[in-house]
Amino acid sequence: MAYKVTMRFNLLRALAPVFTAVSCTLLSSCGLAVMMSSDPAPVLTPVQPAPLAKNVQYVAPTIKAPTLVNPSSSLSSDISGNTQISWSRGNPNQKYIALTFDDGPVTSNTTRLLDMLKRRNIKATFYVLGNRVQNNPSLVKRMVAEGHELGNHTWTHGKLTNMSDTKVRWELDKNRDAIVAATGIKPRTMRPPYGALSTRQRNWIFKEYGYPTILWDVDPEDWKKPGISVVKDRILSKTRNGSIILLHDLHSVSVDAVPSTVDALLRKGYKFVTVSQLIALSK
Ligand SMILES: [Zn+2]
Hints:
This protein is of the alpha/beta class. It contains 10 helices and 7 strands. It folds into 2 domains: about 35 residues, no CATH class; about 200 residues, Glycoside hydrolase/deacetylase (TIM Barrel, Alpha-Beta Barrel), CATH 3.20.20. The site of zinc ion has 5 residues, from loops.
């Protein structure tokens, strides 16, 4: 009998934690469960509320400022009277600047970029490659529909200074034909790959095609992928009235740098226009 009592007692002791655990799950407080255990009641240390910090003031949550929007303009894009053959900057007396993107379109990057620009009412200029235009006609159609300008950046992105005039013509014609096939619009300006074009070439291209050669005065070297903040800082430190900013929508880091960079430029009072508008403003 004594043996049986001991066994029962031991069984109860063994099962006590199980009862406690089950009780804890069933009851909102474990206080009662602890009392039901055969174990001696634990010594409970009362929990002290955390003391109120002194000199702590209410801090308003950060609210994201609304995106700045580029002012709408009805500026002329007519550069037919222009006689200047090369441009790397527009009018230094006005706060108009041109954002240019080379070597696209590339579906993912360019689509994202167009969304960012649309949100800010910014019109840019895209120096597209003919073979990429042929592969992405809907993207270049969208560019034109949203007020952007397309420029001739050749078909293969070869170095034009190493080519015969016949080959250069072929590069420019193929690009122009692809843009016209996709959009019905002819490019008005050209940008040579690597900025490489001799004075002689610039002259005959201007006479034959009417294309001024468009270079730049702000080059953040985004194609070296130095990181978003470096691209942004370089652009902000170099941009001035009339600047032509060179970027490449070929690289995702360049596109990633666009929102904070253009927002900072808008805050500085710059207004974005297309390259043709910038030239027309400089007559
Ligand atoms: Zn290029």
